[in-house]
Amino acid sequence: MTSPGRARSGAARHGRDRRAQRLPGPPGRDRAAADGPAVAVVGGGIAGLSAATALAERGVRVTLYERGGELGGRLAGWPVRLADGSTATMSRGFHAFFPQYYNLRGLLRRVDPGLDVLRRLPDYPLHHRAGARDSFARVPRTPPWSALGFVALSPTFTWRDLVRMRPGAALPLLDVRVPQVYERLDGISAHDFLSRIRFPEAARHLAFEVFSRSFFADPRELSAAELVLMFHIYFLGSSEGLLFDVPAEPFPQALWHPLARYLTGHGVRLCTDTAVTGVEPVAGGGVRVVARGEEHRFDAVVLALDTGGLRQLVAASGKLGDAAWRARIGRLRTAPPFLVSRLWLERRVRADRPGFLGTSGFGSLDNVSVLERWEGEAARWSARTGGSVLELHAYAVAPGADRGREQRRLVEQLHAVYPETRGVRIVDRRHEWRADCPLFPVGGFGDRPTVRTPDPRVVVAGDAVRTPFPVALMERAATTGFLAANALLGRWGVRGQTLWTVPDRGRSAALRWAARWADR
């Protein structure tokens, strides 16, 4: 395992896949006029930061409002004091920075051109309680050998399983296009789609449900289109695989503090601890933004909020959009609650434990991270105390669950995964409960907002926003942030941000033909 202090490997430094698609922004002059437009960006997560960056770099006067005390949105962090008197940075937990996140990585390169703050984990291991284990370290990266290699190397697949599968029903996996994938598969759940193709049960838990858990959702509720899109991004749309990077320090220090300095250097006014409570179009042009009881006028606004925040702000802003758009926003749903538990243990776990482990069959436990394997702050605490810093995730917890009981159960499940943690004193523990991730339910694609709204002065960004490109999760947030900026820049005749995605269709002509043949 690479220590947090060492330089990243060449694999972690590589650029985009050679077949990535370039998506030029709108043409125009390089910068807005000196007394050019002013824009309010509401929300300081990845989407809002991306929009603010693209706008500010082109001379637009930007004010960014964030209701929390820190930037980063769902990747924010904050200081805590532990029971042993030391300080640490708490957050909402582990996030994987996949190499296919071209636009998010482009945002981070503004302050770290070599992405030296990221560390490549050597494997993405998955472990089922029944004993099955899968790994992505040896899986080929080039499609279609990536998918075939996973099947050949996985102990959860057998030739009998392959014979039982329904290849005709599985062919939509081979030629994924947006939005066609939603037209074909948004009406079925991820669980039912896998059942339809007779995907092996054990492999389902250890592979495809990893994707559904990335959406903090039960596969019975998740649209199959989102699951199949993820398959395309990681297996058949790029040759970069499923190994990923993680920040070598906590999110604020590694990512958001440097980006905040970059933005203020470009004239952005950052207003944290400032909730926006209303947005109203102004007759004759512009919008009025209400924050802390004060009204401020801008030429345009980017709404880069989570699902609940967007619903709330639109409901409080009665003149935004039209009735149909407002109704769609009101129907957006939030994924079930999730729990992140971080434990500071008196003794270290075994040296062979990976930095990240996906789990299945252990109850509510979805993964375990050993933070000192890759995060500098945790590694320094471990070196000083001889202990370990572990993080446990439980997704899609029942909304009415007893939180204290769920927290205790999660630690008990850790003991089943890593038995050496039994009886070890917990120096400190922190539990974070959240329910603010978008849900992509069966049949919900039509209600999801697009970047553009009925009012050209108002644009929307975030990981719940529809795009015509194969992107998801943090990359969808970054991409829609840049797209929102481009929509405004194009109105003002200013050159937009160039974007990149994995190919918008399967890379193999033969497999695309097979998929089209099966669809007749």
TrEMBL record:
Stated name of the protein: FAD-dependent oxidoreductase
Q: Name one GO molecular function term.
A: oxidoreductase activity
Q: Region Disordered: start and end of each range? A: 1-34
Source organism (scientific name): Streptomyces caniferus
Q: Where is the signal peptide?
A: none
Tell me which domain of life the UniProt entry assigns to the organism this sequence originates from.
Bacteria
Biased region (Low complexity) positions are: 1-10
A UniProt-annotated Pfam family: Amino_oxidase
Query: Domain Amine oxidase spans what residues?
Result: 46-489
Record PANTHER family: AMINE OXIDASE, PROTOPORPHYRINOGEN OXIDASE
- Give the compositionally biased regions (Basic residues): 11-21
**What InterPro entries does the record tag this protein with?**
Amino_oxidase, FAD/NAD-bd_sf, Zeta_carotene_desat/Oxidored
